[in-house]
Amino acid sequence: MDDYDVSIQEQVFHNAVREYIISLLLFILLYVSSYVIICQFKRKVDSEDMYAGQEDAIVYRISLWLCTFTLAVSAAAVMLLPISIVSNEVLHLYPKSYYVKWLNSSLINGLWNQVFLFSNSALFILMPFAYFFTEAEGFSGSKKGVMARVKETTIVLILLAILVLGLAFVASALINDDQNSKQTLFDMWNIYLPYLYSCISFLGVLVLLLCTPVGFARLFTVMAQLVVKPKLFRDIDEELCTARLEKENIVRKIQYRNTAPCQIANGHPNLELLQDQLKEAKSEIQELEKRQQVSSLRRNLVFPIVMLLLLALTVFSVLLVAHNTLLLLVGIKALPRGAKDAVIGISSLSAFGPVGAVVEILLILYPLK
C-alpha cells in the first residue's frame, strides 16, 4: 500500500514538473519572439546619446523588459483558444498514442490559469509601472538614482489604485443602495475587485461591439474588391482607358526628365518616384485587363450571390446574438456559475471534425492579419 501511494505521488510530481517545463519553454519562446518584434518597431538610434546617463538607460531597459513580458502574455492569451482546439482534436483522433500523453487536460487548464494570472498582473501592475517608471524622476530632495524612481513609481501606483478602487466603490454605491458604510476589507477584496474587473471587461465588450460593424463593412469591401462587379456598378472599360492615359502621361514625364538639359524645379517628382508610379500603373492595367476578360455571366451572377451570402451571414450572426441576449435577459439561459476543469479529447468541438476546427482557428486568427 505504501509503495502504491509512493508511485502515485511520484507520478503526480513528474506530471507537475513536466507541465512546468512545457510552460517555461512556451514562455521563453513567446518572450524571445516578443522581444524581436518590439526591437523591430523600436526607434532606431545610432548611439546611446538619447539617454541622459546610465540611469536613464537602465530605466528604459527595464521598461522594455516589462513591455516584452506584456506582449508575450498577450500573445499567449491569443493563442490559448487555438491551442486548446488543436489539443482537443489531437487527443480525440489519437487517444491512446504514447507521443501525446503529455498533452492532457491538466496542462491546458494550467496554461489557462497562468495566462489569466499573468494577464491581470500585466494589465493592473506591469504596464502602469512601466509607464510611470519612465516618467518618474524621484522625489525632490531625495537621492537621485534608480531606486528613487522605483519608490516614486510605487507611491504613484498605490495612489492610483486607491483612486480607482474609490471610484469603483462610488459606482457600486450608486447602483446598489444597501449598507455601504458597513463594508469591510473582506468585502473590498471579494466584491469591489471583481466589480472593477467586470467594469474593465464591460469596456472590452463595448469596444468589441463598436468594432464588429466595422469588421462587417470591411468584409463587404474586401469581397467587392475580389469579385468582379457588373457593369451597372463598375465600368471597367472606362477605368482601363483612364489607367492607360495615366501610364502614357508618366512615360512622357520620364522621357522629358531623361532628355531635359536641366533639373526640374522642386516640387516635381523625381525619376525613381516616376518609375515606381509607372510600375503601379502597369500592374493596374494588367489587373483591369484580366477583369475585362471575365464573362458577362460570371460578372452578373457571382457578385450578387456573394453579396447575398455575406448579407445572410451577417443577419444570421446578429439574430444569433440577439437570441442569446434575450435568453439571458428573460432567464431561460444562465451564465456558468463557476469554473469547471474541462476534459479535452472526449469529443470534437466541431460537427465537421478536424476541418471545422481548422476553420474555427482561421476565424480566430484572421483579425490579427
Automatic annotation (TrEMBL):
Keywords: Coiled coil, Membrane, Transmembrane, Transmembrane helix. GO terms for molecular function: transmembrane signaling receptor activity. It comes from the Eukaryota. GO terms for cellular component: plasma membrane. The chain crosses the membrane at residues 20-41, 62-85, 111-133, 154-175, 195-221, 301-322, 342-366. Residues 271-298 form a coiled coil. The keyword Metal-binding does not apply. GO terms for biological process: signal transduction. Belongs to the LIMR family. PANTHER family: LIPOCALIN-1 INTERACTING MEMBRANE RECEPTOR LIMR, PROTEIN LILIPOD. This is Uncharacterized protein. The lineage of its organism: Eukaryota, Metazoa, Spiralia, Lophotrochozoa, Mollusca.
